[in-house]
Amino acid sequence: MQKFFSNKKLIILMILIIVTFGLLAVTVNIRDKKSTPPVVQQVGNDVVSVVGGVFAYPTNAVKNATSEFSDLYNTYSENKRLKARIGELAQNQAKLEVVQDENKKLKQELKLTGSLTDYTTVNASVLSRSPSSWQSYLTINRGQTSGIKKDMPVMSGRGLIGRIVEVDKVSSKVELISTDNELNDKFAAEIVGDNKNITGVVSRYDSSTGDLVMENVNSTKNIKKGQSVITSGLGGLTPRGLYIGKVYGIKKDNYGMTNSVYITPAAELRNFTVVTVIKSSVNGEK
Amino acid sequence: MDIKNRKIVGQVLFIFLAFYLDGLMKWAFLNNMNHATVAILPQLMLMMIVMLTMRIDNRRQLITYGVVFGLIYDSYYYGIIGLYTILLPLLMVGIDHFKFLLVKNNLGYELSIYFLSLTFLQSGIYLLERLLQQTNTSVFDFITYTLGPTLLWNIVVFFILYIPLNNLSEWLVKYRRDNK
Predict the structure, then answer these.
(1) Are the beta carbons of A44 and B75 closer than 8 angstroms?
(2) How far is C-alpha A138 from the chain's CA centre?
């Protein structure tokens, strides 16, 4: 025993192992349970992200330029398709305005201040993406000072892309919906159609096909390919009506017990430089 | 400021630049979010650090670099502390310990050391994350879809960047004492 402890290298090794696991366990716990990381870490991350903005700005400009270039290729066919839909859209928009106005008045009548569909938004630009295969985080340049809280959903131009996982003072991290972290990739969802109330949980991401998988679906009758999937607003900080994607197909799981609905995500998770953080007006129970 | 401190400031600045480039490269060019089977992780900071470690003889300075940049990397990119913070200084001490075996720095030696350190770092991160259940990827998937592509990409980049990086790190470390 005497000899064992006199060995300096062994003691260093022992301390190193204890420190490693201690640090990791504490920080993982803080990330999962506390709403913000410790102040020192917040300040550190903020300083790094503010300086990083200097590099991110030109990178985003280049990224925008290249995506415009690739968009140019599809312009003709897209234009044809879009022209066909413009008339329909104008009509829908007029209808939407009338209905929204009516909705507002009715809510006033009922003295209803906020419902599941009400939310406000904060725009933020992306600073970087983590060079890590399991922490699929984006760093964005808005934080607590803009009213962002942990677990708020985040959209890009077309659809849901993820959820806030860490908030610092002037920056925060978004965990993408394509993560395999089981704590964070679940969204309560529903399928929009004539059939009422098909709800489930978007709980998995199939990385080989790039589809989102919706599980715990209450009935798969009448689900058709191409129906829209939106968040259902049940259970917490996500409001109702955020667009997730379109139904692609239904598959049985490996045991043949339950059905999962496969969803093509609406947000192309590649060509965007600006994201929108959604602040729900109705908070879930704390 | 004397020449020694100026060189240290230069080293820190260039490591920082490489640190930001890691995140920006992943974001701008290797951003495969829709089909996320293959994950290529740019590791330019590691490249810079390996090149500097081969040339700096002061072990205390190396450990300080490792811990400081490891902490920043963990906190900013990973959100959990203890991966780079521990593995990076370990790696640097390891390289420092064995570099006397190499007669002269050349592309072959440095490439193989970079290869080994990248493998060590990525496997270490995988093992730690697996132990703490941050991922449930199997070992084979890790090797095929993360380690392999990452090694390939980074080795190619190392080849391309070797000459400028070599000159840069020589310039950042070597100086004549009389030259104030």
Answers:
(1) yes
(2) 10
Domain with A17 in it: 2-33
Question: Same domain, yes or no, for A21 and A77?
Answer: no
Is residue A12 exposed (0-12), middle (13-18) or buried (19+ Cβ within 10 Å)? exposed
Task: Give me the amino acid identity at B112.
Answer: S
Q: Which residue has the tokens 């093992």?
A: B127
What ipTM was estimated for this complex? 0.82
The amino acid that residue A220 corresponds to is: T
Question: How close, in Å, is residue B177 to chain A by CA atoms?
Answer: 33
Q: Which amino acid is at A176?
A: L
Q: Is A15's Cβ below 8 Å from some Cβ in B?
A: no
- Contact map slice: A 80-109 vs B, CB within 8 A: none
Any domain includes A285: no
CB of A207 less than 8 A from some CB of B: yes
Same domain, residue pair A152 and A176: yes
Total domains in the fold of chain A: 2
- Whether residue A201 sits in one domain with residue A105: yes
Query: Which of A128, A235, A222, A143 lies closest to A187, judged by CA?
Result: A235
Name the residue among B170, B164, B158 with its Cα closest to residue B55.
B170
Range in A122-131, A157-166, B100-109, B113-122 the model is least confident about: B100-109
Nearest chain B Cα distance for residue A125, angstroms: 12
| Dihedral sign, Cα of residue A264, residue B150, residue B52, residue B59 | positive
Same domain, A20 and A114: no
Cβ distance A176 to A205 under 8 Å? no
Whether residue A235 is found in the same domain as residue A275: yes
Full pLDDT tens readout for chain B, 180 residues: 788 888 899 999 999 999 999 988 888 877 765 565 788 889 999 999 999 998 888 889 999 999 999 999 999 998 888 889 999 999 999 999 888 887 777 888 889 999 999 999 999 999 998 888 888 888 998 898 889 989 999 999 999 999 999 899 888 888 765 544
The beta-carbon contacts of B52-58 under 8 Å, at least 24 apart in sequence, are: B52/B11, B52/B15, B52/B169, B52/B172, B52/B173, B53/B92, B53/B95, B53/B96, B53/B99, B54/B95, B54/B99, B54/B102, B54/B105, B54/B110, B54/B113, B54/B169, B55/B105, B55/B169, B55/B170, B55/B173, B55/B174, B56/B173, B57/B96
What gap in Å lies between CA B19 and CA A128, rounded to an integer?
Answer: 11
Compute the distance between CA of residue B95 and CA of residue B109 in angstroms, rounded to an integer.
12
My answer on whether A24 and A54 are in the same domain is no
